[in-house]
Amino acid sequence: MSIGWFESIGKPQLVVAPMVDASELAWRLLCRRHGAQLCYTPMFHSNVFTKDPKYRKDSLVTCQEDRPLIVQFCGNNPEVMASAAKMVQNHCDAIDINLGCPQSIAKRGRYGSFLQDDWKLLQDIVTAMSRAVSVPISCKVRIFEDIEKSVRYALMLQEAGCKMLTVHGRTREQKGPLTGIASWKHIKAVREAVSIPMFANGNIQCLEDVYRCLKYTKVDGVMSAEGVLTNPALFEGINPVTWEMALEYLDLVEQYPCPTSYIRGHLFKIFHKIFTFQDNSDIRELLATGQNLEHFREVSLKIKEKYLQYHEGKAHFENSDNITRNGFDLILPPWICQPYVRISPEEHTKKMDTLCKNQFVNGSKRIFEDPDGNAISRKRMKKLRKIMRRPVKEDEQHNGRSGEICTNGTCRNPLGGKCEYQLCKKCCKNKCYEEDLDCKGHRILVHTRREMAKKHAKEVT
């Protein structure tokens, strides 16, 4: 069934990866317009998907042009995973199991790459899902450090009923600033061992990388995540102008709406090189605080207005020192879609060591202060910075807060706007408890409940 199925969807080679909050319908359609032959949905939580109709409706948004399509689930319960698979089998061409997510949230939820040590459970999940639906079940995995164990892992999944495999050539520990280079050597070894269709994932920054990977590993197709986020036309083999891609994407969002956070994230990725320049901080701030499509269009048009003259050759763009970031020279102009190049894990480690040394003066930790000069924790400083980045809304009182601080001299919490005693909720609760009071603003009814208790006690006696 696997080979016939794979041929029926055109034996795709150019694949857009499943990305949480990033591979929604509008983005998938943009990538399809520019060379992608197969797309995955974002990862869906199988347990929530089966229990929450709203989550299910909001998650599985697709259309006629959105094919071939693979829906991805995460989870650790074979029955629940099989139930979720049944709900989507008529809307996709295959169903994928996420066995590659390395994030801490996956560790807490016990899914993704944190299932790769429980082979018995994985066999049960793959088998249960394969028996439950008529479409193929695929798996997206990460490698082990040991090549032979990676091969045995892949063969185990194939024997359990997996009909297609995607191998990300990095271990579970290779993430964030420690991502490093993916091992195509591992991917090649797995490809030589399994007999089902297989995709490779990792080290794809341009179309030439795709062809190099196909040639070396002999896989059936290549998947990209970070590469297509910074250049949606990666599979088309071009590096388009950033504002053209952004505006085209926004047109698709207008037709197929998605959460504002998704849009903002995509535009930050597309414009990532432009925002390395300090003189673009005002545009960056507009993007960070934008609340609707018009704000995001304004960001794109402002960037176009600023850089079009350089793109058309009407003005000379100076190669200033600002163009070099993290030790890498910018080859393409910043207004062109291009890869995001991470620093190496070794450089990151060295950088963090230097930072740690700078944070310790005379044996003490770095001191953080609030705007009034009071010493605060690092956690509180991060929270204050986040608050400062929030847009100032006309309806400033919409949440009942004025921005003032609790009148209790030892407390720095925000003042409850409707509190009768001008306190935060915690201080107000303590006051009501100690002084036998009520606060309607905070809905604290200590006095009322005590009176009810006394009345009830009298009635009983």
From TrEMBL:
<dbReference type="Pfam" id="PF01207">
    <property type="entry name" value="Dus"/>
</dbReference>
<dbReference type="InterPro" id="IPR018517">
    <property type="entry name" value="tRNA_hU_synthase_CS"/>
</dbReference>
<keyword id="KW-0819">tRNA processing</keyword>
<keyword id="KW-0285">Flavoprotein</keyword>
<protein>
    <recommendedName>
        <fullName>tRNA-dihydrouridine(16/17) synthase [NAD(P)(+)]</fullName>
        <ecNumber>1.3.1.88</ecNumber>
    </recommendedName>
</protein>
<keyword id="KW-0560">Oxidoreductase</keyword>
<keyword id="KW-0521">NADP</keyword>
<feature type="domain" description="DUS-like FMN-binding">
    <location>
        <begin position="16"/>
        <end position="255"/>
    </location>
</feature>
<keyword id="KW-0520">NAD</keyword>
<dbReference type="InterPro" id="IPR013785">
    <property type="entry name" value="Aldolase_TIM"/>
</dbReference>
<keyword id="KW-0288">FMN</keyword>
<comment type="similarity">
    <text>Belongs to the Dus family. Dus1 subfamily.</text>
</comment>
<dbReference type="InterPro" id="IPR035587">
    <property type="entry name" value="DUS-like_FMN-bd"/>
</dbReference>
